[in-house]
Specification:
It is built from 2 helices and 6 strands, in the order E-E-E-E-H-H-E-E. It has about 130 residues and is of the alpha+beta class.
């Protein structure tokens, strides 16, 4: 197989570091294993971030997400671990990870975790008429 799952996240230089802008990434094929039963858990990950100097490279993100396929993880832990790893790799001004897990035993779980760079303030929203 030419590519393998990996925990290594790659980055590239932000082409517009002087501007606050939002990058939104949707990952609809996240899978891990339930640590209690070993059954697969499926989720869609929604990543929103305001980059500072670095942006996450998408192929490395795909391989990183793939690395969880055979790992047991509680929803809360895996969401926070992924956020921590993305923040460590990119040092964004702001990042939010929303993990929407598919139904399991009649229960849906959504976990939202956020990071805010010290001192960073979001710009005022613009409301157009």
């Amino acid at each position: 197989m030419p590519t393998q799952p990996t925990k290594q996240l790659e980055t590239f230089d932000n082409p517009m570091p002087e501007r606050d802008y939002t990058i939104r990434i949707e990952v609809p094929e996240f899978t891990c294993l339930c640590p209690k039963t070993g059954q697969p858990d499926f989720a869609t990950l929604y990543i929103e971030y305001v980059p500072d100097r670095q942006c996450v490279e998408l192929k490395s993100l795909k391989l990183y997400v793939w690395s969880y396929r055979d790992e047991g993880a509680f929803h809360e832990k895996v969401t926070n671990t992924i956020l921590d790893d993305l923040v460590a790799a990119t040092a964004p001004r702001f990042m939010r990870l929303t993990a929407k897990f598919n139904v399991r035993g009649g229960i849906y779980t959504t976990v939202v975790a956020e990071h805010r760079q010290s001192g960073w303030q979001p710009p005022e929203p613009v409301t157009l008429p």
